[in-house]
Amino acid sequence: GDWVIPSPPSSGTWQTFVVKEESVWHKIDKSCPMEYAATITVNPLTALRMLEDFVSLASAGDSLVQNGATSIVGQCVIQLARHRGISTINIIRDRSGSDEARENLKALGADQVFSESQLNVKNVKSLLGELPEPALGFNCVGGNAASLVLKFLREGGTMVTYGGMSKKPITVSTTSFIFKDLELKGFWLQNWLSLGKVKECREMIDYLLGLARDGKLKYETELVPFDEFPVALDKALGKVGRQPKQVITF
Amino acid sequence: GDWVIPSPPSSGTWQTFVVKEESVWHKIDKSCPMEYAATITVNPLTALRMLEDFVSLASAGDSLVQNGATSIVGQCVIQLARHRGISTINIIRDRSGSDEARENLKALGADQVFSESQLNVKNVKSLLGELPEPALGFNCVGGNAASLVLKFLREGGTMVTYGGMSKKPITVSTTSFIFKDLELKGFWLQNWLSLGKVKECREMIDYLLGLARDGKLKYETELVPFDEFPVALDKALGKVGRQPKQVITF
């Protein structure tokens, strides 16, 4: 039969059989890898909406800055931005394996990758080289990593918070608002999906899956048979091994 | 002769004689008290622009929250909001004389006045009574007083920072952005004035001076002869007595 996914995304796909109105299903091109079809409406959709909804970036020549760049959203941001000619400045954690993480992100198209400790300098903008000051920043970490995004932003720039991995709040100086005219906002995909944008959602899914099929949007997933669900859960929670996205097969 | 003030506001009015293009002067109705004409383009203009530029408040039935409510901007916000049927929730410092400050603000039209310690409760919104949750907040203090403004805001609300009297930064939780969808922005009058809004500026001056003339916009000023400039300076800096706005007369 056909491959379909619910669009707009809904819960309840973890079912052997389900009958629903035809209108809630979106047919998927089978030439696209199944694991991308299964995950496209989560992290890649978040990345795409955040690129579109906040700041009108020039199609080429602008830049953005993000922390948590190794996350799947972060990886998608790098690739989607690169596809439009937008440069990315990426901030990652200091940890073992950060050199490898840096090379992986550069292979995806990242222009600059810094670990937090590398940004412990007086003027982070001196590290930008030829890149323009970013007008848009994404924060999924909080704490110091959020402050670093703010430091990179140009006057009048916007930082969008979509996660808080460090569990630390965001601290902002008064001058950032008054003299640098920064704006801080939030993004939550569920909110966007609740706006009833059925048509836009399907167009975005096709766009993203097209990029995935053509090898222009990549992120690591691991297909796991249902029988190995407990192991997949441990991996997803970081208890075992690395943490590629776990996709259960039936 | 006529009374004039430079519009848009410019520096260099501290002069006995000055010759400039007629176009930079705005003629003032002499029935308006001189001390208001001299100060109208500073704090009252800030209050008016902040009310207009960020959130479309319903002409009646909406509310806003602000800290630093005893400042002249704060007093103007209360009166301009009241004039439009917008309720105000006002946060003041804990200090001797705060009861008197509360009564003064209520006399200007404040709906609710809380000292910071009164807001040390689990759910500040339980204190709103019949007032709607505010969609707009003004922060000129930072630190805990800014967090209190954020706590009062309704989902999707906006906090505008225009000062940092406590010299402490603003701390924001990740959930405020993602799940409460708050926006944080800044306001600086100098920036607005640099946008070349000559006509709007004159209309606002006339509007505000009209309110002042009719007794609908009040704030305390003290007229000081030029000879007493050193005392005026000490008062303005808070070294002597209370701190009404010092207006020098020649």
Short précis:
The structure is a homodimer of 250-residue chains. The first copy, chain A, has 250 residues and is of the alpha/beta class.
Could you describe the 3D structure shown?
The structure is a homodimer of 250-residue chains. With 250 residues, chain A is α/β, with parallel strands linked by helices. In chain A, 34% of the residues lie in helices and 19% in strands. Chain A has helices at residues 34-39, 43-53, 72-83, 98-108, 143-152, 174-178, 189-193, 198-213, 229-236; strands at residues 3-6, 25-28, 63-67, 87-92, 112-115, 136-139, 158-161, 170-172, 183-186, 221-225, 245-249. In chain A, the strands form 3 sheets. In chain A, strands 5-4-3-6-7-9 form a 6-stranded parallel beta sheet, sandwiched between helices. In chain A, strand 10, helix 9 and strand 11 (245-249) form a beta-alpha-beta unit. The first copy, chain A, is globular, with a radius of gyration of 19 Å. The two termini of chain A are 15 Å apart. The relative contact order of chain A is 0.15. The model of chain A has no long low-confidence stretch (mean pLDDT 92). At the A-B interface, strand 8, helix 6 and strand 9 of A face strand 8, helix 6 and strand 9 of B. Strand 8 (170-172) of chain A pairs antiparallel with strand 8 of chain B.
What is the helical fraction of chain A, as a range of percent? 25-40%
Seen as an oligomer or otherwise, the chain set is homodimer
Total helical segments of chain A: 9
Which CATH top level class of the largest domain in chain A fits? Alpha Beta
* SSE order of chain A: EEHHEHEHEEHEEHEHHEHE
Major sheet of chain A: size, sense and barrel closure? 6 strands, parallel
How much beta of chain A, percentage-wise?
15-25%
- Stretches of chain A where pLDDT is under 50 for at least 5 consecutive residues are none
CATH superfamily of the largest domain in chain A, by name, is NAD(P)-binding Rossmann-like Domain
Strand order of the largest sheet of chain A: 5-4-3-6-7-9
Kindly name the structural category of chain A.
alpha/beta
Mass-distribution shape of chain A:
globular
In the CATH hierarchy, what is the architecture of the largest domain in chain A at level 2?
3-Layer(aba) Sandwich
- The strand count of chain A comes to 11
Q: What value does the average pLDDT of chain A take?
A: 92
Kindly report how far apart the N and C termini of chain A lie: 15 Å
Report the largest inter-chain contact: A-B, 27 and 27 residues
Number of domains of chain A: 3
GO cellular component, one term (chains A, B): mitochondrion
Organism (chains A, B): Brassica napus (Rape)
GO molecular function (chains A, B): oxidoreductase activity
Keywords (chains A, B): Mitochondrion, NADP, Oxidoreductase, Transit peptide
